Amino acid sequence: MSDRGSFNSKLGIVLASAGSAVGLGNIWRFPTEVGSNGGAAFILVYLAFVFLFAMPVMVGEFVIGRASHTNTVDAYRKLAGGSKWVLAGYLGVLGGAMVLSFYSVVAGWTLKYTFDSLTGQICWDADHAGVFSGFVSSPVLSLTCMAAFMAASHLVVVRGVHEGIERYSKLMMPMLLVIIMVLVCCSLAMPGAGKGLSFLFHPDFSKVTAPVVLSAMGQAFFSLSVGLGCLGTYASYFGKNTRLVRSAFNVCAIDTLVAVTCGIIIFPAVFSVDSAQVDAGPGLVFITLPRVFHTAFSGMPVLCYSFSSLFYLLLLLAALTSSISMHELCTAFVSEKYGMARSRAAGLVTVVCSLFGAACAMSFGPWKDMTFLGMGVFDWFDFLTAKFIMPLGGLLITAFVGWYMDREMVESQLTNWGTLRIRSLRILMLLIRWVAPIGVGLVFLNELLPLLR
Ligand code: PFF
User: Fold this and answer.
1) What is the value of pTM for the model shown?
2) Closest C-alpha residue for ligand 1 atom 10
């Protein structure tokens, strides 16, 4: 185990796992979904999914990872012999590589916007939609930003679990939390902030339709990084004393708190300028917000500069802590499966995912018209992972831990070999064995049936 490395502290474990969870999904995707799906009602459905479905999957990943102390494919091999369960591991690695690829494209945009904020450019531009579409459709610029971001996550992973992932998570996560607190204060001080808050916290249940429920589940899985094995891979580096259930709860709580807080940052700011923009879709962060910075702080360049720089830096840090977990999922697999040194395995993952990422980036530019069933490469990667691979992975993980693994082994992982008393153990097992698989299965079927018809 020492050859593989391990986390050295409880704080490192929670911050690295929360770092995987807190990412573009919280800051970019969550407010976008809340904005398009009717505000607080969406948040309530989302919360139910987080604690009833996604958290049991996370606990399941932790159990598989720590019980096997190996990468996600070999974990199934070790715990289930030569059976077909290893396919669940391969599915996770494939999904992780796919998410890393399209995620790095958006993270690359974030890198560019961080740069533009630090140079003050964002506060001078007037045509924000034009700037954004010009940038994403330029292959040179968007590929360079995507590759630079991928290189940054490579550099962290190459250093290993303790020196790389744990050390940088301990550095970046507190920075991220401080930036969030500063931005909340600034945003709440903006004129019209109250309207943004009431949009965020006033539930409109008429908006909770079947597609909204589906989006909430997809969002919960994506935001908590569950279903692929990233957190399972991290758990393979946990020590004997790590409390799996408590860590999973802490990660879910931090992630949800950050997502809602990002709503508190974004909506008051947007409402203070133009409430018609709240459901602006993915452009919310890259088109609407620069407009908000520009308009709300016109004549106050220092405020515009500080707010926009902090915001995009937050987005960049969050993206980086998440991408390293996907990178680690793939790197651990390649290095252990093929007996490669970590640096070579990480290099291979970086190259392969950069090539996939390039294909995703091109679908905003020269390959814009190359679509299949109306979706380009980027959309396909997003759709297949968030709507298909992650829920299926979640279903397999809970089925494996709840039904296939020896019950005593699972409980001894959850109770640290009987040394902890977990009052909610029975409820948790009920969630893992019944509620999560049935719930995810139903939502999943509901999603697949229209496609098969
Ligand atoms: N949870 C990350 C976010 O919210 O941005 C994204 C993510 C990371 C998805 C790792 C999937 C994953 F395996």
Assistant:
1) 0.94
2) 225
